[in-house]
Design a protein that fits this description.
about 300 residues; alpha+beta; Ribosomal Protein S5, domain 2; Alpha-Beta Plaits; seven-stranded mixed β-sheet; four-stranded antiparallel β-sheet; globular; binds (R)-mevalonate
Length: about 300
């Protein structure tokens, strides 16, 4: 039986999550945690996923390609992932992109980026309803960049190489939080317009600070971005507690990353402070020191292949 394996990175959003759904720019980076999907040709026309029942980003992305490209065999998929699920680190997008890439490889097609994004977008909709496309773009292209719905993903140079990711341990559904922000905007159009303008200004200023990198400015901008996210209702008690603790322990700045409502907090600090924060917070949370600007999607060698 023919088989192929591909992997794709998770992501953190440094600035601009949620506002990106409404047309604003956001800055994100691929991280050095990856999801891999193995795709094996199977009898019949069925796409099955080991260990999962029902819709899943991996099987939806593969089904989309199989239909589009007129492939008439079945597929058996297996996921293995280092990315914690439903906590804002782009796990569904990485799984959807890796599945789409492995499927294309198995069918004997090139890794066409446009097709990968299209298939992964279908896969991500399972968890998300109306994704902006930022998570799938990062999983495909890797590195770090600015994303807008109108212009897509543009890579940037970033001097910031690592940060802390603290998992509050509370999973949530991205789609529910995206809906919450949309409702805030509909009920408070004037205020929401001001928040979007300020968030766009933060992204502008952050681009310079990230290049250097100037941790003090990055931290100040993250703290202000967090206040804007709090205003639109996507922070939570757990997030605020973890952020408070990071700042007390010397972080330059901290904010939620991804959809919020639980999930992960990111914090920037100099190296010594990072160690101190990790030691203290790991008593009650999962704390990861995460490398940024990781490689995008790639085909993985198969066991026994040269
Ligand atoms: C999710 O990682 C980021 C959000 O901005 C949603 C999206 O952009 O699709 C909350």
């Amino acid at each position: 039986m023919r088989a192929a394996t591909a992997s794709a990175p998770g992501k953190i959003i440094l600035f601009g999550e949620h506002f990106v759904v409404h047309g604003n720019p956001a800055i994100a980076s691929a991280i050095n945690l990856r999801a891999s999907v193995e795709v094996v040709e199977a009898e019949g026309g069925v796409i099955s996923l080991e260990g999962f029942i029902g819709d899943n980003p991996a099987s939806s992305a593969a089904s989309y390609l199989v239909k589009k490209l007129g492939y008439n065999r079945g597929l058996r998929l297996r996921i293995s992932s280092q990315i914690p699920q439903s906590v804002g680190l782009g796990s569904s997008a990485a799984i959807a992109v890796a599945s789409a890439a492995a499927t294309l490889q198995l069918i004997g097609r090139k890794l066409d980026h446009r097709l990968l994004l299209e298939a992964a977008h279908e896969g991500e909709k399972v968890a998300h309803y109306t994704p902006s496309g930022i998570d799938t773009s990062i999983a495909v292209f890797g590195g770090a960049g600015v994303y807008t719905r109108s212009e897509g993903y543009k890579k940037i140079d970033m001097g910031l190489e690592e940060l802390l990711v603290i998992n509050t341990g509370r999973p949530r559904r991205t789609g529910d939080l995206v809906r919450k922000v949309r409702e805030f905007g509909e009920n408070n159009p004037g205020k929401f317009g001001e928040i979007l303008d300020e968030a766009a200004g933060i992204v502008d200023e952050a681009l310079r600070a990230l290049r250097e990198p100037d941790l003090e400015i990055i931290g100040r901008l993250m703290n202000r971005n967090q206040e804007l996210l709090r205003m639109v209702g996507v922070s939570s008690e757990e997030i605020e507690e973890v952020i408070g603790e990071c700042l007390r322990l010397g972080a330059c700045g901290a904010k939620l990353t991804g959809a919020g409502g639980g999930g992960c907090v990111i914090a920037v600090a100099d190296r010594d402070q990072m160690d101190k924060i990790s030691r203290k917070l790991c008593e009650r949370c999962q704390v990861m020191r995460v490398g940024l600007m990781a490689e995008g999607v790639r085909i993985e060698p198969r066991p026994g292949s040269p």
